[in-house]
Amino acid sequence: MALFATTLAAAAQENVDPITGTRIEPAYRPSLGTSTVYAPPPAPTAAPSTVPSAFRWGPVEAHPHLGYRFSYGDGIQARQGQESTTAIHALSPGISFALGKHWMLDYTPTLSFYSSDAFEDTVEHSVSLRGAAAYRDWTFGLQQSYAFTSSPLVETGAQTDQEMFVTALSASTPLNTRTTLELGVDQSIRLPENYTEAWEWSTMDWISYQFNSKLSGAIGIGFGYVDVERGSDMMYEQLLGRIIWQVAGKVDLVVHGGVEDRQMHGSGVSDLVNPILGATLEYRPFDVTTLSAGMNRTVSPSYFSDQVTESTEVHANLRQRLLKKFYLDLGGGYRFGNYVTTSEFAPVTREDDYTFFSARLSTTFLKRGTVGAFYYHSENSSNEGGYAYSSDQVGVDLLYRW
User: How distant, in Å, are the alpha carbons of 24, 243, 268 from that of 7?
Assistant: First the structure.
């Protein structure tokens, strides 16, 4: 897992591009799974692109960064049905390049060392490029990412090596003073070792209308095709609506929802028709307090052949600044996962109930550094053997950016 960032699937779920400031609304893509090992939330220091750097060559500015995390936890699954206690040392040296004002390139390897022989020590890699450009009335965006991870996953019940490639292209243009056309094309390739590989291509296109300075709505149509290594390939169509409401810097609400019709080629099973829902709410009652909550319901290819996963998740978070120097982060959530067959010859009955809670106290130092201590609890109950676990983890983390 990347040490001081969420997985690429999490980055893809962020609402705003940190470089361009534009809202990101990608179609669903296969995720990197849910790691059972804690990763800290984004540090509250300034973004690299806004911090002056001593490493500058014309329009190119380099920002090295170094992260370290020590954690100790029990109940972590190295293999299905095998829960282990282990200490983990994770070191993440990396570098970001600001390429002018609108482009950012980052490379971060993570070296993880486990005290338990049940786990393999790993060197993981994360590379990302994102940026934007404008031509006449059009604004174009690009996100390109690569990750190699080797984390214990809830979905597989084991430490899982995998690679993921993600490409997202976007374009938007105003049709008049209130109406905007938004176009998006995505490619996502997930290559796990010993599990089903998935290649997905999708598009999600919106017509948005700005009712006033605080409220906008949109209607969108999406199409996608999933080529899986083992099992039936899939094609799907989505019809979605979206509302964005912003109130005086205090409240941000984004809600989207609709329906998806998914067909499995040559499988002999009926179409899967599912509601697709998503919402994020952020409330800032005071300058030092941020409350956020969200929910998502998605359908995605499973790690296992002839299956898709229907997931419904709710979560909430609190960030509170204390004594002007400390940050308290509390977060928790629940997810229900239902595994559905895509073949009449492969019955599936697995259902998972996953819950998590985290608490972290952190502070900044020397303007560019962050240090924190955390507690993390997660557990999964499943009606199939080998996937249930309960884990408690404590540790400290450190991040410094130049």
Answer: 16, 26, 35
